[in-house]
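2024-03-11 09:14:02 DEBUG pipeline.ingest accepted 1 chain
2024-03-11 09:14:02 DEBUG pipeline.ingest length=340
2024-03-11 09:14:03 DEBUG pipeline.predict start
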Amino acid sequence: MEQSSALPVKEIDCYGAKGQVSAAVIASSEPVVLRNLVSHWKLVARGAEGQQAFADYLLSTYNDRPVMTYSAPAKERGRYFYRDDFRSFNFTKQGDTLAGFFARLSASARDPEADSIFIPSMHLPSFVPAVMQENVVQIDGVDTPLVQAWLGSPSLIACHFDAMHNIACCVAGKRRFTLFPPEQAENLYIGPLDNTPAGQPVSVVDIHNPDFDRFPRFADAQAHKRVIELEPGDALFLPSMWWHQVEGLAPFNGMVNYWWRSTPAYCGDPMDALTHAMLSIRQLPEAERAAWRSLFEHYVFTSQDGRYDHIPQPALGRLGPFCEREARRLRSILLNQLNC
């Protein structure tokens, strides 16, 4: 793939760090490639020995819980996406055991007309907890990240964003990430919010073969893209809200992701605020929307330091210091108002 037009991404060689990620790295608002971050993992060593060795390692501690698998016809070439009507998808979902998945994967590797197949978002501590004790990333200031795995044949997951920060570790095969900064959302031609391939809205542009007649603004996004490829042992720190297309390029690919939020869970999901704004603000006349935009800028998006010094501390209410108790109070207010 031609990558000369892509902007550079900062890289750090983490050989010898043994899976330690510093606070300085995750404080970045830009992606950072962490070469050799997990090259010491047993999971990476088994992957280097081949798919069967990798499978045997996972299955040796697997607790027989069913996993969810996705498969797409060979004609889709591993692209998991919408059908033309944008109401259905070009792939199917099927429950299986981990052993059954690896058996199907091995069979498909011998048949060029076989469906592509992969496991998305397998919560590793729930399925192979012992493996997680031997393959660890320690992130400064992050105590309980969500750890999930993506395993399977060549695949392409359409460009999307995640609200959480992410360290994506390549443990087998090869991964390619095509990245766009958050402010490029308007140029990515985002698909439906209510019917998405995997939970998050996705760009409907074929990034490798863009139709600029249909998607002319994508040319602006192209000027801001970053493209990076991960070998086994490499990782990528991807800040919250960065758009990214992810491809598994090898016959067998494995990736382990560490996800975390920069705020406590009691702060709520920003997507809920977006949904509520669509209900209560998007329908207003333009002048009123502009007025509310100013209020959001005042109360939400601008630094609060010193902004309310004119109000006595006991009277600040929701403008005061935030804590779990205040979060519960605000949630109760919202629930009461929404139920009216």
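2024-03-11 09:14:41 DEBUG pipeline.report The chain has two domains: 10-262, 266-338.
2024-03-11 09:14:41 DEBUG pipeline.predict end
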